[in-house]
Amino acid sequence: MVIKVLYxxxxxxxxxxxxSHKNRGMDLENLINDTNKYYIEKDIALIYKKPTPIGxxxxxxxxxxxxxxxxxxxxPSTLDYNGIYKGKYLDFEAKETKNKTSFPLRNIHHHQIEHxxxxxxxxxxxxxxxKMNGLIYLLEGTDFLNYIDSKNRASIExxxxxxxxxxxxxxxxxxxxxxxxxxxxxxKERGKSG
Length: 194
Fold this sequence. Notes:
The protein is α+β, with helices and mostly antiparallel strands. It has one domain: Trna Endonuclease, Chain: A, domain 1 (3-Layer(aba) Sandwich). It contains 5 helices and 12 strands. Strands 3-6-7-9-10-12 form a 6-stranded mixed β-sheet, with helices on both faces. A hairpin with a 2-residue loop joins strand 4 and strand 5 (65-73). The longest helix is centred in the first third of the chain and has 14 residues, at 28-41. The radius of gyration is 21 Å and the shape is globular. 24% of the residues are buried.
């Protein structure tokens, strides 16, 4: 896009401006993946999306590429992302819901809940990043576990997520600076808002 500016004394200048709508319409996983790439490039943290373990039954070869024709989930996966930040093991799950009033617990499996318990028990950092009602929250693992241990419900009420969750705002670079919120909660750094 070219912006033309007319200054006093009839001075004309043109500026080339590249408008980026990079984050517009991105889903939560893409925002986190872009952010993790930024964290790695800037040597802030090493956080990766874990691949789902798949057993391969049948493969074909097309144009020098292996194509999986038949496969199965080899074992249950733990949480979506893990890594290390400031010497601490970090592990989290990222979920989106279109439900406006509650976050369905069917989105988190029993083995994942037990994994969160284990990470916390061993002094690691574990949490959920939940996108709901157009907003993104970081819900600490302990708050998540307290809720499911004290309530006999099939979902987490949105009001609980708003009350206990920490709002993470989308930005340009990085796309979703969730480590700013992690700092505030677990390291008591980087300001008081997140």
